[in-house]
Amino acid sequence: MIHRRSLLVAATLALGFAGNLARADALSNIQSSGTLRVAVPQDFPPFGSVGTDMTPQGYDIDVAKLIAGEMGVDLELVPVTSANRIPYLQTGKVDLVISSMGKNPERDAVIDFSMAYAPFYNGVFAPEDIAIEGPDDLAGKVVGVTRGSIEDLELSEIAPTEATLRRYEDNNGTIQAFLSGQVEAIATGNVVAAAILERNPPQRPEMKFLVKDSPCYIGLNENEPALMEALDAILAAAKTDGRLDAISQQWLGMPLPEGL
Amino acid sequence: MTQFTFVDILTNLLWASRWTVLLSLAAFAGGGLLALGLLFAAIGRARWPGRLARLYVEIFQGTPLLMQLFLAFFGLGLLGIDVSPWLAACAALILWSAAFLVEIWRGCVMAIGRGQWEASAALGMGYAAQMRHVVLPQALRLAVPPTVGFSVQVVKGTALTSIIGFLELTKAGTVLSNASFQPFTVFGLVALIYFALCFPLSVGARRLERKLNVAH
User: Fold this and answer.
1) How many residue contacts between A and B have a Cβ separation below 8 Å?
2) What domains can be seen in chain A, in order of their start residue?
3) Sign, Cα dihedral of A120, A126, A132, A133
4) Which of A18, A42, A83 shows the shortest C-beta gap to B175?
5) ipTM of the complex as predicted
6) Whether residue A17 has pLDDT greater than 70
7) What is the mean pLDDT of residues B16-28?
8) Which domain holds residue B124?
9) Residue B162 has what DSSP assignment?
């Protein structure tokens, strides 16, 4: 019996080890396969959404194209949601996550991050006639938030216990809950609120207070110094020669902030 | 911002529903075959195959399909085995639908009265002959309505495969409503397409039921 169990353990270890070996050096793997697999959002305009022919488009997609172009490899876009993007990376199904992902200690413990590539800050938004000035004013209010997002994790800590947090599977759920009046306020990103405003809805979200300034980073697996270095070099070059600024102008309608 | 016309939305949704249809067919065909095998283990006289079949049903009925999909796709990936989304989705849906189908069919066999078994035994039939000529034909008639009812569940269950990256009908609806900001049009159409897929199943079942002329 003991014998059989140790065999099982050995098999599991071997499998895990083979998995690690398979992605021993992600950069050379990408170069030898000739394809960069990138996890991108498809339900999060303007970072990632779809065109009329269902092809992905947005800030994240353009950054992915830029990086693949610089590496001289083909680009394979893998649509993900905020709930499954890290599993995709950890299981080696993608090489990079460019999915408007903010950095936090929990994520930092399991994956690595490149330098920031896009500005992003989270706040609580509500129509003009609702008085909210800080987290304490959320008591007794119903706030919508996207499950597993940075603003969800942050707000869960700072919101008073009397506040009701309604968590939705994706940003669309959060947006619809706000537009249909099921929640009084939403915690979301500046760009999401801007995208809502652009559609001229009857409920106009206004920024009430800042939850967190959390620029977006590219996620990659841990212990990949070569890939990390290549990414940072590409991003640094794109920041100086204005290509990243052009992407920001196109999708966010504003220049890349200084010091990003 | 991209502007979506009604035709854009409809064609994209119809195109995405091919996954819903393919996954449903695979789940139902594969699940049906597996369930048939399990059925003979479940109703047979041998003790261990019966227990194993029961354990299988308990495990797959007692855990959420969403979690089964997640484990099939990411769990095996963590062990270094690369599973394609299509394979993971098919495997999980087949295993899941088999667990329900075998219980449905076992119930139908159990519903055949003891007298039928005794009468056929009195005629000198063995187990195989009893099954073939007396029990299964009657059980089949009973099985039609619940089986079709469950197939409608399978069609709707395919929506969960979006967790592993399938752009099937429901997910396409979410993505489109996010890009077009027309949730009522998009989800209205999604509902109509699901209805168009499931309604013929129900109608077909009613016909088949009348044709087989269930005695009970």
Assistant:
1) 89
2) 23-119+215-252 (3.40.190.10), 121-213 (3.40.190.10)
3) positive
4) A42
5) 0.73
6) no
7) 94
8) 6-212
9) G
